[in-house]
Amino acid sequence: MTPLTNNALPMRKTIPFPGRVDRSTSDRSILFLIDQLTEMGGAERMMFELANRLKKLDYTVSIITFRENPSPEAYTYGAEVIVLPIRSCLSWKAIGVARKIRQIIREKNIAIAQTYFESSDLFGAVVCRLSGVRKICSSRRDMGLLRTRKHMLLYKLCAPLYSRVFAVSKRVAGWHQQRDAIVPQKMEVIYNGVYLATYNHRIDRDQVRKAFGIPLDVPVVTTIANINPWKGLDVFLETAAIVHNEYPEIAFVIAGDKTDLEHYRVLQNRVQELGLSSNVFFLGRVSDVPSLLMSSDIFTLLSRTEGFPNVVIEAMAARVPVIATDVGGTSEVVTDGVTGYLVPCEDHLTAAATVLSLLSFPPRGDRLTNTARALVEQQFSIETMVRRHIEVYDALLSA
């Protein structure tokens, strides 16, 4: 199986969107600006999913990224990716990049710009406004995880530039309204979505596990997260050590890009110290996330911070019991004891006890997964996510 992280999907038939407004081609030209595509996380994949669905609805979509060497995955979606490298928004090179953005905006008659992350939200939005784009949307994916004091000030100063601010959860929306002085009428909560059809097929669990190098006849507890300190993978290992005492053959699977090599080495050392070398499997980037989830018995996400975790709704779509920390917007999809289990942040003891309770009585997890899948179908599909964006775009273009 190819070791590439990707939830990229082939071109799919799109259902019609009621209430669509007939517009000229120039009115349907959208520019996405995103800081980087070198590491493909949830935000990047959701942006590409949105771009692809918009193209099927006769929107013209262009993507600008400010970091060199995008991941090969970024080119598998079929969207136009324009790389304009910039290290500092205050450098002389930034002036040249700004001119190129202005040229692209004029050539493509951009009607709406949508920005992702700090450089795009601030530098990109200012350049777009000065280049004549009057409808600018900002997509907020977390609660200021990487912000500096400079960012805090600039976000407040730039707040009037945005026609709408999209937040991936109510908690994220509340944080940005308070910190960035966003007026409530500009804020839109649009949850991420999952393409349900990829979780409707049957799999051969043994074959999938063989492909990933996972033992066949043992319980498998999986987490999917890029390797960095805020994903709580150290907490996952401490949880694993407790569970291992009662289930010595159990497998703990970590799938995700090694974005922080130093932290990866720390985790590897901890695996050795805990005596889990035969039980913990680092898969790296994984291309077939649905099959990995459907071959797992329990999914956990023990992050220290989240905006809205895509992988949680993916696990719910795969009908895998979910255990997650109550951070960010996670509680807006995981209702404790109903669609999954919420545990306190940093609490490996409670996480381990919850894993053990599911392993000791599997029917408890079956009840959860049926309810969880129904919730995803109702509220967290890709179609719902795209429809909500288009409703906002149409409203802006009609104003």
TrEMBL record:
GO molecular function: glycosyltransferase activity
Gene3D superfamilies reported for this sequence: Glycogen Phosphorylase B
Protein name per UniProt: Glycosyltransferase family 4 protein
Pfam (any one): Glycos_transf_1
Residues in coiled coil: none
Alphabetically ordered keywords of this record: Transferase
Domain Glycosyl transferase family: 204-373
Limits of the Glycosyltransferase subfamily 4-like N-terminal domain: 40-196
SUPFAM superfamilies in alphabetical order: UDP-Glycosyltransferase/glycogen phosphorylase
